[in-house]
Design brief:
Blueprint (H helix, E strand, L loop, with lengths): L3 E6 L3 H13 L3 E7 L3 H11 L3 E3 L2 H6 L5 E4 L6 H10 L3 E4 L7 H14 L3 E3 L7 H12 L5 E11 L17 H17 L5 E9 L5 E10 L5 E7 L1 E12 L2 E6 L11 E5 L2 E5 L6 H15 L7 H19 L3 E2 L2
Parallel strand pairs: 1-2, 1-4, 2-3, 4-5, 5-6, 7-10
Antiparallel strand pairs: 7-11, 8-9, 8-15, 9-10, 11-12, 12-13, 13-14
Helix pairs in contact: 1-8, 4-5, 5-9, 7-9
Keywords: Oxidoreductase
Family: Belongs to the Gfo/Idh/MocA family.
Protein name: Deoxyfructose oxidoreductase
């Protein structure tokens, strides 16, 4: 089976802890090189992972003709520059979420990748877990009736770490960018439509460069259905997704971080409660193999335009929270 040769652009924890092990465990990927701003760091990580090549700059990595694709886990404000430079170097790109600071940047990145003929994907790994397809099948089957609303939550508390890059406004910090993007993207995916308006309330902290440390809101979709969500970096750890229909509901624990042994969910109807043991998987591995399929076989699970639409929703939510008003998406 043809394998995609990956270059890793940076030594962020998400790369070392999740994505790089996933590439090594995947069927269709291999790590060929890693780069950092310093050779000492990239060499140490390369030694830990048994990677043949380590570079002291991202430019060297992009110049390597034996690299097919790059993974970019850099801070949010650097995504646009390096996605475009990677595309110009002829590399396919998997970039961490959120892919940009706004929809204008996202559109520029999509355009650059299309012009270069390379595949671009945003690293929402949870969408690649088999459980998502199983949830969509239940919704389509009519078991819970017609959809009425979705409720999504994703919070954690890291407020004491004042040096965290998530608390730097100019770098794309804030809870909507970091974790609110998960329920927002999930609602778009499960409703299968695009939102019409948003109303969001936020807590902006002067101690944390005035980023939104918490946000809660209402996202209106066509037909009167809605997403009610909250997200935060200043509250107790929790995740939940509830999908409500006219004849039942689905409760999904750990909707955004489930792997092999914690992918179950619960279906409530008039017949009682059904515990569904979803297919377990490492979503990072699934993401890597699906990315390779998109490159080699032209079968992307998500269109490039999805990146721009989702970024537009995130920035509109942030604008609503700052302006304290309902904003139409039209």
């Amino acid at each position: 089976m043809q394998k995609l040769r990956w270059g890793i652009m940076g030594c962020a924890q998400i790369a070392i802890g999740s994505v790089m092990p996933a590439i090594q465990d995947s069927e269709r990927g291999v790590i060929a090189a890693i780069a950092s701003r310093g050779l000492e760091k990239s060499s140490a990580v390369a030694a830990d992972f048994g990677i043949e090549k380590a570079y002291s700059s991202y430019e060297e990595l992009l110049a390597d003709p034996e690299i097919d694709a790059v993974y970019i886990p850099l801070p949010n404000h650097l995504h646009r520059e390096w996605v475009i430079r990677a595309a110009e170097a002829g590399k396919h790109v998997l970039c961490e979420k959120p892919i940009a600071l706004d929809s204008r940047e996202a559109a520029e990145m999509v355009k650059a990748c299309k012009e270069a003929g390379v595949h671009l994907a945003e690293a929402y790994m949870y969408r690649h877990h088999p459980r998502i397809a199983e949830l969509q099948e239940i919704i389509a089957s009519g078991e819970i009736g017609e959809l009425r609303s979705i409720r999504g939550t994703f919070t954690y508390n890291d407020a004491e770490d004042k040096s965290n890059i998530r608390f730097k406004a100019a770098w794309g910090g804030g809870s909507l960018y970091d974790v609110g993007c998960y329920p927002l993207s999930a609602a778009r995916l499960l409703f299968g439509t695009e939102p019409e308006a948003v109303t969001v309330h936020g807590i902006f902290s002067a101690e944390h460069d005035n980023v939104d440390m918490m946000a809660s809101g209402l996202v209106e979709f066509p037909g009167g259905v809605s997403l009610i969500f909250d997200c935060g970096m200043w509250a107790f750890n929790r995740q939940l997704l509830e999908i409500l229909g006219t004849e039942g509901r689905i409760e999904v624990p750990m909707p955004f971080n489930a792997r092999e042994d914690d992918a179950e969910f619960f279906v409530y109807t008039q017949e009682g409660v059904r515990r569904a043991r979803a297919t377990g998987a490492n979503p990072y591995v699934c993401q890597v193999d699906n990315f390779a399929a998109a490159v080699f076989e032209g079968k992307p699970l998500f269109a490039a335009e999805d990146i721009v639409v989702n970024m537009n929703l995130i920035e509109t939510c942030l604008a609503s929270a700052r302006q304290r008003k309902r904003i139409s998406m039209n």
